[in-house]
Amino acid sequence: MICCCVGGNDTAVGVELPMEPAPSKPKAMEKILSQPQATPLQAMIEEEWSQEEGEACRELFVGAVVVPGDTQQGLDVITLDTDDRVVVADVIEGKPWAEWNDSHPNHKCEPGDQVLSVNGQPLSFDVTRSLMHKSAKDRHISLFIRKPKENHVSFFKEKGAIMGLALVPTPGGLLFVEDVREAGLIDQWNKENPKRRVRPLDLITSVNGVSENQEEMVEALGMIGEMEIVLLTHN
After folding, report:
1. How many separate helices (H) and strands (E) can be counted in the chain?
2. Is residue 218 one of the residues assigned to a domain?
3. Source organism's superkingdom (predicted)?
4. What is the Cα–Cα distance from 131 to 119, expressed in whole angstroms?
């Protein structure tokens, strides 16, 4: 597992924010779609935009900030050694992306969001790290973001049963799924519910009603009885 922190605790300075994207294909997105890419990213974007426009606009958007050269943009992202997907782990208060969120309540960059491209470039973790840390007097950072969907997982956990989850806490107080182990309850759920499976890079937001407290959520996962787990996923 790799966690890339592109935030920081230095004092943020003034940030110029662009206008909120209109409910249509942003130019940056059209540029991505016009490029020849034999990749799952291209197919996924086209599939999303083939949906009814209003729904698609809620799931895909372009957010952009201007980051002064001596300031960090305030975004923590997570990926895996075996997975090129990049997911937002935390948005740090007082930084450019937090200010973007304050000014664009309908297009917030939030934990669980998947970053599909940076400055128009489809990405891997290495590309993300390179572009986000690029040194310049004023860095114009544009992220093409896909919102996650909520997944509800429920089953009965008997005494002695194994959950079968490898977890990593995120800076924002959530739990990140690193791996689903074989022969555990989650693995069994995945086999019985392939369209609602739990997978690496999912973010657990609550366990049996417990949320925003990592220790209490982990404790709830160890309890016996009915289990109700809510995750943010990109299945």
Report:
1. 7, 13
2. yes
3. Eukaryota
4. 8
